[in-house]
Amino acid sequence: MAQLFLPFATKGKLIELRAIDIKSEHGFGPYEAIHPIELANRMRVGIVAAEWFDRLPVDLRTSLLGEYSRTWSAGSITVDGMLHVLANAEHSEARRTITLLEELVHEALGHPKSQLIVQDGVAMRTCRHDVEDEAYAVAAALVMPYRDLFNHINAGRPLADLPVPAPVSTECRLFRVKRAGLWKLHIAREQHHP
């Protein structure tokens, strides 16, 4: 196998290798930027259409997409052996891109599923922050591969102009730059090419 173009930072390298492994397992090249729908199709994961919410009772739909819409991003469930992912339809497309990729990363890496538990009469979801952090970092690496990100930043181009196959937020782009170990280069190039 040819030498891969990887981050120098140890954590950045590990994240990139996880993203490359997922891409390889599903027939993508190591430097391809991945759209969540394409990855879901290749993983045989169903993405629940936003119209699904329209079939819910009005009270439930209003709660999920109104009053409580800021408290959840996505959920997944396996039905008849197939994973189905539902993203919050009220979130921006940029947020849904990473949310869907995160759910696919959880599945691809075999992350433990969070659980709903009742403690002192209150229902809550378990959360392993290390698992969630890894899923977000790998999701960002899938949509913004290191080689293209490095070349874009090194050329002094604005981060907002980095081509991606699906929308991502400015915050996600900055997170990716930091996790890939490119923050200092980004700042240097930004100052040199205002």
How would you describe this structure to a colleague?
The chain is mainly alpha-helical and 194 residues long. It has one domain (10-192). It is built from eight helices and five strands. It has helices at residues 10-25, 36-43, 58-67, 93-109, 129-143, 146-154, 170-179, 183-192, and strands at residues 46-47, 74-79, 82-87, 116-119, 122-125. It has a three-stranded mixed sheet with strand order 1-3-2, covered by helices on one side. Strands 4-5 form a two-stranded antiparallel ribbon. A hairpin with a 2-residue loop joins strand 2 and strand 3 (82-87). The chain is globular. The protein starts with 9 loop residues before the first helix and ends with a helix. The mean pLDDT is 92.
Which series of helices and strands comes N to C? HHEHEEHEEHHHH
- Mean pLDDT rating: 92
Please identify the structural class as seen in this structure.
mainly alpha
Poorly predicted segments: none
Helix content: 40-55%
The coarse overall form would be globular
List the total number of helices: 8
Q: How many E-type strands?
A: 5
- Distance from N terminus to C terminus (CA atoms, Å) equals 39 Å
**Any idea how many domains?**
1
Q: Name the beta content range.
A: 5-15%
Biggest sheet descriptor: 3 strands, mixed
